[in-house]
């Protein structure tokens, strides 16, 4: 059992490990350490001693911080990721090469740090302080004059007191953590959808639906002893033995009867239940009689016809066989056509005679004749009963024109002996063929002790080995259907064909070639025959001692064969090689045979479980070989050591084929898993919870669509066990499958639902919708969905179901697409359940919308119980909000029936989901909305509904926007009927659906417009703004407290949705014209089941050294390290060189508003003023991709970030309506996909100073900090995909910029529209988290940024042109200067070099050295503008440094070009 726990059940540990792709953000920390070391080097003149007492010349590899999360968070997902990162071995190898590179000119020194491996799947080796748990010493640093200051933190001059934090015990403990890759779990790779049929391994039919039995056998012996046939000339001496009887030894004892009796006994060893009948030297009339009688008695079962023709002539040219006349004076031929007619089919024929191949040839010819007759008969009478003669099997001793061997050392019926006594003839053959001198005789075969049926005896063990070898040879040689037919359909046929393989081997040595129909490939030279010879030799070597008289009362102890042990070892070697190309293992049939032995059973089961873990193809192979009856029988075993491996094997079988439910029901096999699932039961393995999760999965599949399974599982306490496991905090997989098990237990089964109600199961599941693991949340929703629908809709039932619906409303803003999809499915069941009530709710919603339109109100009445939306009121000219609008008054005077009800809340939630940013969620919710609206139109309310629709259509709804033009009275534009397009109306008459209603509700909730009727930034208003900028301004003009984009005169040629909008993987668009049907069908159970079809015991492909993914990851890591090292000397030049050397010019095709460099790839991302994202390869000046972000018209992309930059990066965009979208393969036009999308900000506030959504990504913690037009900073956790906390912004102004310290991720800073900069500490309670506020700046903060490396400078700049440098420990700025007198539009800070760049509103850029004694720009220059767009007042809208290289990209308003510059003529790139 310990062996299994260590070797066979490794999957259980993998179940508990987090499948998020794990990696160390080694490069970032590497670079940060270099930066700080460089700073210290310059400060101290290249010498000194650091806080650890190390001389500056020594180098230390940087520590690797990890996420600060609780235990449950570090095991967030239990679904395997298809893009798992390489193991720590990869990191160690690349780090070793890096060390060698750095040590090329110096010596290696130990730095004293320890490397601690936290996970086998970790890409990078992490570094920590001294720890008693450390396992590996860290790589030593090296001395190099050029890089002497790379690897030491400069704790003496780092800003903000970080030198103390980085040297603290808490920080050193933090370094022991690991970094993870995010949004690469299976739920992201698959979009939460199961694989399509084309992507899955097809389930092969492994059950023998047409299993047959050989019920009768005719043993026909035509020997005519004493008379030789006329066409045979026998040698002298000659083979005499027939069935091991010498007929000439004692003629008086009726040798013919003895031979017949022996033949029957030999066949009985093959099949004891077959009825045998001997026909000794029969005459023709009796032959016909007994053949017809056999078929009549056998009915549709198989008949065996054994023919020994040693005493009659060879078959005729037409294949006729000979018998006798009644007087035995003549040989009478029997036509094969007649024989077929008498015996019918199915039958098996054995021909032991010379020239037997001729019989086979002619037999097949007559089968074709029968088929032709059957066709004619069926044409005459379609109902005629016909016989399929193709189901006839033939075994012949030799081919055409071959004569049976007459070797006197062999029996005359050598073929029959091979078929019926294989062990005896095989040993005799071995003795005859053995070239070595020995004392063995040909009669030794009959002296081997034991019985064939007793595997522990020498004879029984040989028979067992023979069966395993012949089965394996057939498995490896024949195609699967033929193997199944010959070796699994009929026990008699299987035994004969196993022995036929031996006949092929033996008789070839005597110039005979046995043939069969169906024909088999040649197997006489298969390598396993050598193993058979070895097994025979080992037995014969012990035979003399076994047969010696007992000495001293102690018999000789037989030494068992090592055959099975060796074959299991060979199978283990096969598994260790990873099943290359899915080649079936040669030893699989042997493993099946080993299961019969208690000695090898546990090891065989462990190896079998490893094989099944390879995937569905392996499960199919195991089932087709016949493994199922064995593992089914083992469920009756009480052996505790078999329980873990049996659970694992059955989980894999049911994951591939769930049709085994009736088999588990039979003999109460399901009880085996119920017992293990019980919390009170014990199982001898360390990872008990993983095996219980497998038991929950097995019982889930047992109950799925199987009412008998539900009934038998309800009584033994399965429900109680599942409820107990819902609190299993250490294993999310168990919680997930406990939910799914309950879902199938009570699905369409009222008794189980009432049992769940009595136990409070539905309330426990409602609590789980806030579980930190998205798969568990989705599983809880899936279970609650199946909980709905008790047939008797009593008030009690209605109250329970409404309570469930109200409790799940809390997760309408969940960050996981999969959870939201399941929530929509739940709502579809709930809406279908109360369809009439929702029709009334939908009608009243339309009426309220009409009132809203006709009164011009800006608030939607909401009750306290339906907190789906935040109502917003339109401000007057002074920005105040009226207390009551006409719309509100009218609704208060005429309250709706559904107001303040759960139905209104659910309906508004489903309307919001109809415009969800994730396409699958939106499409599913759209189906529900369509269904209800169509039902409403066909209901008695249809006429009134049509009137409301007509009113809405005629109203020509005004723009639903809180844009700037509408908020300011001096910038209003007159409403025009032509300004509203049909697609933006509230209801499209042709489709009669309400997606646009949902869109308008979204606008009400978020405060943004949709459609072409959004405010246009041109015309008089634009002129007014432009003239305002040209007039003399006070020190802080009002415009400087407004968004800089407000003054832009955009001339972008791009439009919304002008490029492809990426969709999620496996997403299929709903066909046009398809009628909506609810309830929706969830695919979550099928998706979850795939977990048990995927390998869990072995590392992912990317973790296997030598694999393509592994090598690619290794190459990327080496490249990243090279970039970090190569760019270090450039930092010194950056602070004293010019930055106006052009490096590239790209025509983006649309106005770039945000630019972003990838750290290591040569990618530059540009987003424009609408929804277009362009990806450039700046090294080749090539546009790689352009796609649409999908944000609504009237909004723009306000944030763009890279995730997982160390490996394969993802691209994150944030748009003005508060939505975050994440893309993979962003650089590929064909492969770009939407990974995830959710509404990160759900309560955007209406404001005339909008910053949209701003975000900061913390790779080390997997946290996304989101702010904007809200009063809080929202912290989203990537592994959980949920909001962890809201940090109060403590400001009435919008957040314009976010930044944070990236090492530990505790400190964050935010800039605001009123010029304030606030600093927060996440370690404090949210209400007390603000630790510093600076109000030195009075204008809109363009950007606030904290360096990731260098001195960790914290820089803020405002639109008034002033730039301030801060230390969070001080109340005043440590440095400040005026970068631009007439206003500043953009600011960028290099992550590692002490430089920053500012862009003015007059199209000039200045680059500054932050550490210079006097603040004079290093360079002042203007980026290129096309001839038609040259404008000295064109602001610099986009400005960004490369994170490592000394490169700068920028762009200005009115021009579509992107300019690149580097720091001097030496390149910097």
What do you see in this structure?
The relative contact order is 0.08. The chain is built from 45 helices and 41 strands. The two termini are 59 Å apart. Helix 23 (643-656) packs parallel to helix 26 and helix 26 (688-703) packs parallel to helix 29 (732-745). The longest helix is centred in the first third of the chain and has 25 residues, at 356-380. Mean pLDDT is 79; it is low at 1-156, 858-893 and 957-1036. By secondary structure, it is an alpha+beta fold. The strands form eleven sheets. Strands 7-6-8-11-12-13 form a six-stranded mixed beta sheet, sandwiched between helices. The chain is elongated, with a radius of gyration of 41 Å.
Distance between the termini: 59 Å
DSSP E strands, number? 41
Q: Report on the biggest sheet.
A: 6 strands, mixed
The share of residues in extended strands comes to: 5-15%
Provide the low-confidence segments as ranges.
Answer: 1-156, 858-893, 957-1036
List the strand order in the largest sheet. 7-6-8-11-12-13
Percentage of residues assigned to helices = 25-40%
Q: What best-fitting shape do the alpha-carbon axes yield?
A: elongated
User: Mean of residue pLDDT?
Assistant: 79
What Rg, in angstroms, do the CA atoms define? Answer: 41 Å
Structural class: alpha+beta
* Number of alpha- plus pi-helical segments: 45
């Amino acid at each position: 059992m310990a062996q299994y726990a260590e070797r066979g059940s490794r999957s259980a540990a993998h179940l508990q490990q987090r499948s998020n792709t794990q990696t160390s953000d080694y490069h970032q920390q590497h670079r940060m350490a270099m930066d700080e070391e460089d700073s210290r080097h310059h400060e101290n003149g290249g010498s000194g001693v650091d806080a650890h007492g190390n001389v500056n010349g020594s180098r230390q590899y940087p520590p690797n911080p990890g996420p600060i999360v609780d235990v449950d968070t570090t095991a967030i997902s239990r679904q395997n990721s298809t893009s798992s990162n390489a193991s720590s071995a990869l990191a160690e190898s690349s780090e070793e090469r890096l060390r060698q590179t750095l040590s090329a000119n110096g010596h290696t020194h130990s730095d004293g740090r320890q490397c601690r491996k936290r996970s086998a799947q970790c890409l990078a080796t992490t570094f920590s302080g001294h720890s008693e748990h450390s396992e590996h010493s860290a790589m030593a640093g090296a001395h190099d004059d050029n890089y002497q200051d790379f690897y030491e933190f400069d704790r003496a001059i780092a800003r903000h007191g970080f030198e103390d934090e980085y040297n603290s015990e808490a920080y050193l403990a933090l370094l022991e953590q690991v970094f993870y890759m995010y949004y690469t779990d299976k739920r992201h790779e698959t979009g939460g959808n199961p694989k399509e049929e084309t992507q899955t391994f097809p389930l092969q039919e492994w059950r023998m639906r047409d299993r047959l039995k050989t019920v009768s056998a005719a043993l026909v012996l035509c020997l005519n002893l004493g008379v030789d046939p006329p066409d045979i000339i026998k040698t002298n001496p000659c083979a005499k033995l027939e069935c091991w009887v010498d007929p000439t030894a004692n003629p008086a004892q009726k040798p013919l009867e003895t031979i017949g009796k022996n033949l029957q006994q030999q066949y009985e060893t093959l099949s004891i239940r077959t009825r045998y009948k001997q026909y000794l030297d029969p005459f023709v009339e009796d032959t016909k009689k007994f053949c017809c009688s056999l078929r009549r008695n056998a009915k549709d079962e198989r008949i065996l016809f054994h023919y020994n023709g040693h005493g009659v002539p060879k078959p005729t040219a037409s294949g006729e066989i000979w018998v006798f006349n009644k007087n035995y004076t003549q040989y009478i031929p029997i036509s094969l056509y007649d024989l077929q007619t008498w015996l019918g089919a199915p039958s098996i024929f054995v021909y032991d005679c010379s020239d037997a191949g001729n019989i086979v040839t002619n037999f097949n010819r007559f089968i074709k004749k029968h088929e032709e007759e059957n066709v004619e008969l069926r044409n005459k009478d379609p109902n005629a009963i016909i016989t399929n003669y193709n189901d006839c099997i033939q075994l012949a001793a030799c081919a055409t024109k071959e004569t049976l061997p007459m070797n006197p050392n062999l029996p005359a019926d050598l073929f029959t002996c091979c078929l019926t006594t294989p062990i005896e003839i095989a040993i005799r053959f071995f003795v005859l063929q053995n070239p070595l001198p020995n004392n063995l005789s040909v009669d030794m075969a009959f002296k081997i002790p034991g019985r064939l049926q007793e595997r522990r005896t020498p004879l029984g063990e040989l028979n067992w080995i023979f069966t395993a070898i012949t089965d394996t040879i057939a498995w490896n040689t024949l195609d699967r259907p033929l193997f199944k037919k010959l070796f699994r359909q009929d026990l008699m046929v299987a035994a004969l064909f196993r022995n036929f393989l031996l006949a092929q081997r033996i008789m070839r040595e005597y110039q005979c070639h046995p043939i069969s129909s169906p024909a088999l490939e040649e197997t006489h030279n298969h390598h396993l025959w050598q193993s058979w010879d070895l097994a025979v030799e080992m037995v014969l070597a012990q035979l003399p001692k076994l047969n010696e008289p007992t000495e001293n009362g102690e018999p000789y102890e037989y030494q068992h064969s090592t055959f099975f042990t060796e074959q299991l070892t060979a199978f283990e070697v096969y598994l260790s090689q990873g099943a290359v190309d899915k080649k079936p293992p040669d030893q699989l049939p042997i493993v099946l045979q080993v299961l019969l032995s208690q000695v090898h059973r546990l090891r065989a089961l462990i190896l079998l479980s490893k094989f099944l873990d390879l995937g569905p193809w392996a499960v199919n192979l195991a089932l087709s070989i016949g493994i199922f009856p064995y593992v089914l029988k083992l469920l009756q075993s009480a052996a505790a050591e078999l329980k873990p491996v049996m659970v694992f094997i059955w989980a894999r079988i049911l994951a591939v084929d769930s049709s085994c439910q009736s088999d588990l029901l039979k003999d109460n096999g399901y009880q085996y898993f119920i017992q293990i699932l019980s919390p009170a039961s014990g199982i001898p393995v360390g990872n008990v919870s993983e095996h219980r999760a497998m038991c929950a999965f097995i019982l889930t599949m047992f109950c799925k669509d199987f009412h008998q399974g539900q009934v038998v599982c309800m009584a033994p306490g399965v429900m109680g066990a599942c409820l107990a496991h819902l609190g299993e905090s250490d294993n999310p997989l168990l919680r997930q499958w406990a939910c799914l098990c309950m879902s199938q237990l009570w699905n369409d089964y009222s008794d189980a639902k009432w049992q769940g109600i009595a136990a409070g199961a539905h309330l426990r599941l409602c609590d789980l919708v806030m579980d930190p693991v998205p798969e568990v949340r989705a599983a809880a929703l899936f279970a609650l969905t199946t909980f709905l629908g008790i047939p008797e809709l009593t008030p009690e039932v209605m109250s329970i179901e409404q309570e469930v619906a109200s409790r799940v409303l809390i997760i309408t803003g969940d960050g996981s697409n999969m959870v939201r999809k399941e929530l929509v499915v739940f709502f579809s069941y709930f809406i279908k359940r109360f369809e009439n009530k929702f029709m009334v709710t939908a009608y009243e919603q339309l009426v309220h919308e009409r009132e809203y339109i006709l009164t011009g109100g800006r608030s939607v009445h909401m009750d306290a119980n339906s907190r789906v939306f935040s109502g917003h009121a339109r401000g007057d000219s002074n920005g105040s909000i009226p207390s009551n609008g006409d719309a509100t008054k009218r609704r208060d005077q005429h309250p709706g029936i559904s107001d303040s009800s759960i139905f209104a809340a659910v309906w508004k939630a489903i309307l919001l989901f109809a415009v969800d940013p994730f396409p699958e969620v939106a499409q599913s919710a759209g189906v529900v909305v369509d269904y209800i609206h169509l039902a409403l139109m066909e209901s008695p309310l249809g006429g009134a509904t049509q009137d409301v629709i007509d009113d809405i259509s005629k109203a020509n709804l005004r723009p639903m926007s809180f844009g700037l033009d509408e908020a300011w009275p001096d910038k209003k534009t007159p409403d025009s009927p032509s300004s509203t397009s049909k697609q933006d109306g509230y209801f499209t008459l042709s489709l009669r659906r309400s997606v646009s209603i949902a869109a308008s509700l979204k606008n009400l909730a978020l405060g943004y417009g949709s459609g072409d009727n959004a405010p246009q930034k041109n015309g008089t208003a634009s002129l007014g703004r432009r003239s305002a900028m040209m007039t003399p301004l006070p020190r802080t003009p009002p415009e400087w407290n407004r968004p800089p984009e407000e003054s832009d005169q955009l001339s972008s040629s791009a439009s919304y949705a002008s490029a492809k909008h990426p969709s999620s993987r496996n997403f299929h668009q709903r066909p046009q014209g398809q009628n909506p049907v609810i309830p929706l069908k969830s695919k979550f159970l099928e998706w979850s089941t795939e977990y048990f079809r995927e390998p869990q015991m072995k590392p992912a492909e990317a973790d296997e050294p030598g694999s393509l993914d592994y090598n690619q990851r290794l190459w990327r890591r080496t490249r990243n390290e090279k970039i970090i090292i190569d760019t270090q000397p450039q930092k010194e030049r950056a602070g004293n060189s010019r930055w106006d050397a052009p490096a590239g010019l790209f025509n983006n095709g649309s106005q770039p508003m945000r630019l972003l460099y990838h750290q290591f790839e040569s990618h530059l991302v540009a987003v424009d003023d609408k929804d277009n994202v362009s990806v450039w390869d700046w090294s080749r000046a090539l546009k790689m991709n352009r796609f649409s972000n999908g944000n609504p018209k009237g909004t723009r992309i306000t944030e763009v970030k890279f995730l997982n930059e160390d490996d394969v990066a993802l691209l994150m965009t944030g748009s003005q309506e508060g939505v975050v979208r994440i893309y993979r393969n962003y650089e590929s036009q064909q492969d770009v996909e939407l990974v995830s999308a959710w509404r990160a900000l759900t309560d955007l506030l209406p404001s005339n100073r909008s910053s949209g959504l701003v975000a900061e990504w913390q790779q080390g913690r997997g946290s996304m900090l989101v702010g904007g037009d809200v009063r809080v900073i929202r912290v989203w956790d990537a592994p959980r995909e949920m909001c962890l906390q809201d940090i109060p912004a403590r400001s009435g102004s919008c957040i314009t910029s976010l930044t944070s310290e990236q090492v530990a991720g505790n400190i964050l800073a935010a800039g605001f529209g009123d010029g304030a900069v606030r600093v927060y500490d996440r370690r404090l309670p949210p209400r007390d988290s603000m630790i510093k506020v600076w109000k030195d700046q009075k204008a809109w903060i363009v950007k606030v940024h904290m360096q990731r490396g260098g001195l960790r400078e914290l820089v803020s700049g405002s639109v008034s042109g002033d730039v301030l440098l801060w230390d969070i420990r001080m109340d005043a700025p440590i440095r400040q200067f005026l970068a631009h007198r007439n206003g500043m539009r953009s600011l960028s800070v290099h992550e590692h070099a002490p430089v920053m760049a500012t862009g003015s509103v007059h199209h000039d850029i200045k680059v500054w050295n932050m550490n210079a004694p006097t603040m004079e720009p290093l360079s002042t220059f203007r980026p290129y503008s096309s001839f038609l767009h040259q404008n000295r007042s064109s602001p610099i809208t986009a400005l960004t440094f490369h994170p490592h290289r000394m490169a700068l990209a920028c762009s200005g308003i009115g021009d579509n070009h992107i300019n690149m510059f580097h720091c001097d003529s030496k390149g910097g790139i």
